[in-house]
Design goal:
With 334 residues, the protein is mainly α. The protein is built from twelve helices and three strands; from the N terminus they run H-H-H-H-H-H-H-H-H-H-H-E-E-H-E. It is 68% helix and 7% strand. Strands 1-2-3 form a three-stranded mixed β-sheet. The chain is elongated and about 80 Å long.
């Protein structure tokens, strides 16, 4: 009987090969790829329509349904899988698929918005996707890690719907299309930053999980390993660049919230016992806009501006929009 000794390098190569093979399901070939592409396109289109209608209706259930239907998360995981396993052809195929998918969902949002009556203001669901912050980055990293773990282990498929719900991919893209059609370019940019954040976060964290799972090129495949390192480095840089505007937006949001708390008692004192009510406000970097309604015209706005400047310890550019409250009574005689 002949025994073959297994060396440590052989065990390492076997583990790496097994880890790479675990991701084969992400890269179907031949007829399997064509069938999967048809299914992918149909589901993505349906998800885009459901998300757009849900955003217009401010329907949380519809938006969540669109997240579950959308196959975009799997395509992004495939980008990370192709990156760490050195599949050069699939790196191009999967990245193009993700970019085309994003453009298609934006187009769906734009076209549906063009066919529907224009919104006078964004619904809360739309508004929420135009103001991304660092918390969104944290959610994307955690959920992306969970999705990559499931893909690498080929187990825990029951967790995939939860991953799809946690990471917002299709709704932000639909929001971009809607906001572009409405001419709200700043809001469209915010929604696009949210999608880009989730995209970069999933690619980076999924790549790390795949590497830890052993899904990397063998040590003798130096070219593939070098390309893997370069691709991962580019992804990390992209994630860092995306994190900068997120941190800036988060700082602005926290600052605005703190200033609103300081300004509220000042505005309340200014109103006093007058028949006035604040129905809307916005605070951003010393610019304050108030919407008040009532039966009394507020003619002492400069006084409020001085009081707010003292309370916030900074110069204040105050605008007060007054909306008169008018009551019309009539008696009808028989």
């Amino acid at each position: 009987m002949t025994h073959t000794a297994t060396t440590a390098p052989d065990l390492v190569d076997a583990r790496l090969s097994l880890g790479a093979a675990a991701l084969d399901d992400l890269f179907p070939e031949g007829d399997a790829y064509r069938h999967s592409l048809v299914t992918y396109t149909v589901l993505l289109t349906m998800a885009g329509l459901v998300a757009t209608f849900g955003l217009f209706q401010d329907s949380v259930a519809a938006i969540i349904g669109a997240m579950v239907i959308a196959p975009l998360g799997g395509a992004i995981l495939a980008v990370a899988g192709a990156l760490v396993t050195g599949r050069i052809r699939w790196q191009a195929i999967t990245l193009i698929q993700v970019l085309v998918s994003a453009a298609w969902v934006i187009a769906i949002g734009f076209l549906v918005s063009a066919l529907m009556p224009n919104l006078l203001q964004l619904t809360p669901s739309l508004e929420a996707r135009t103001m991304p912050g660092l918390l969104d980055l944290g959610v994307a990293l955690a959920a992306g890690a969970a999705g990559a773990f499931v893909a690498a282990r080929r187990t825990g498929s029951d967790a995939l719907p939860g991953v799809a719900i946690a990471v917002s991919l299709v709704p932000p893209l639909a929001t971009v299309g809607i906001c572009i059609e409405l001419g709200r370019w700043d809001d469209a940019g915010g929604a696009l930053i949210l999608f880009t954040t989730n995209l970069a976060a999933i690619i980076v964290i999924a790549s790390i999980v795949f590497i830890l799972s052993g899904a990397t090129p063998r040590p003798d495949q130096r070219g593939e390993r070098d390309r893997m390192r370069r691709g991962l480095a580019v992804s990390v840089v992209l994630l860092a660049l995306v994190a900068v505007p997120l941190a800036w937006r988060s700082f602005d949001q926290v600052t605005a919230s703190l200033q609103a708390l300081d300004a509220a008692p000042v505005v309340k004192d200014w109103i006093g016992d007058r028949d006035l009510e604040v129905t809307g406000y916005s605070i951003a970097r010393g610019t304050i806009d108030l919407v008040v309604t009532g039966s009394v015209v507020p003619d002492d706005v400069p006084t409020l501006a001085e009081a707010l400047a003292d309370a916030l310890d900074q110069d204040v550019d105050l605008t007060v929009e007054y909306v008169p409250r008018v009551q019309v009574k009539a008696i009808g005689n028989d």
